[in-house]
Write a structure and sequence with these properties.
This protein has a six-stranded mixed beta sheet with strand order 2-1-6-5-4-3. With about 290 residues, the protein is α+β, with helices and mostly antiparallel strands.
Length: about 290
């Protein structure tokens, strides 16, 4: 392996981490990184001051271009768009993609959809990957002052949706274990006890499978929904604990087939939000458990 290939392989996790967080798709992130590799292979490397800065800049700009091209598709997406989940060893792990799991979660990536492509890039580079404003400005082709404004506006836009209180992982796992058992048994009262009064369910079917076109809200409504699934799929329903984007989550199987990947936000006592990915195109990489 030559020095240029070694350098690229060393930086690949960081590049994949940027591309996946920008695009919410493993396949698209891999295509961006592959395109960056081709450009790196053809580049005059001796003239580069920093290989890392050059590659980060290329991957970020390619990701921005892809997001702009995808804007029309996502505007006409059937229902709510959620990112492709990273489940266990079915895709690059959070460790491979670098940085903290809370900046890789489905909830975080769904929030990022509020931002323009350039604001998304500026926020990720600064707040997730700890780039200086000078580097952010260089990548985006803007002044440092303009880059600071982009990051500030992005933080403001995301502020309301971020979890207010960190939840211990063991607490999160215990809540989900209880919820999985209640969901499989169809225990209506236990389901209600585990859900916050204003709990939300966000689903993504992509127009490929039945799903809700809007956010469902309310403890009773969601408890009855999970109760109905347990009744309808009696004897064939499994809720399997799994690592979903670096956080505890559940895989729901019906009649032996993966029906959804579900990630959860909690306040430490009850579940406050559920993201349910049902689009089969986005479940294709998930290996059966």
């Amino acid at each position: 392996m030559d020095a240029a290939t070694q350098t690229f392989d060393r930086l690949r996790p960081r590049l994949m981490g940027i591309a996946y967080r920008m695009l919410g798709s493993v396949a698209e992130a891999e295509e961006v990184v592959q395109d960056a590799w081709l450009r790196w292979h053809a580049a005059a490397k001796d003239a580069l001051q920093s290989a890392e800065a050059w590659l980060v800049s290329v991957v970020t700009r390619l990701s921005i271009d892809r997001l702009r091209a995808a804007k029309v598709r996502r505007e006409h997406y059937v229902g709510t768009w959620l990112p492709e989940p990273l489940v266990g060893d079915s895709a690059p792990s959070p460790e491979q993609l670098l940085e903290r799991a809370d900046n890789l979660s489905v909830a975080f990536l769904a929030l990022m959809e509020r931002l323009t492509p350039e604001a998304r890039a500026a926020f990720l580079l600064r707040d997730v990957f700890d780039a200086g404003y000078e580097e952010v400005a260089s990548v985006l082709g803007k002044s440092e002052a303009a880059s600071r404004q982009l990051v500030h506006r992005a933080r403001t836009q995301l502020q309301d949706g971020r979890p207010r209180f960190p939840v211990d992982r063991a607490v999160h796992e215990r809540l989900l274990k209880s919820f999985a058992q209640a969901a499989m048994k169809g225990d209506l009262q236990e389901l209600k006890d585990l859900l916050a009064e204003d709990v939300e369910l966000v689903g993504d079917g992509g127009g490929k499978v039945p799903s809700f076109g809007k956010v469902l809200r309310g403890r009773d409504r969601l408890a009855h929904l999970y109760y109905a699934v347990a009744r309808r799929a009696a004897g064939t329903l499994r809720m399997v604990p799994a690592e979903v984007n670096g956080m505890p989550g559940l895989l729901r199987y019906v009649d032996g087939q993966l029906e959804s990947v579900q990630s959860f936000e909690t306040d430490g006592e009850r579940i406050v939000r559920i993201h349910s990915q049902r689009n089969p195109d986005k479940l294709a990489r998930v290996r059966p458990i």
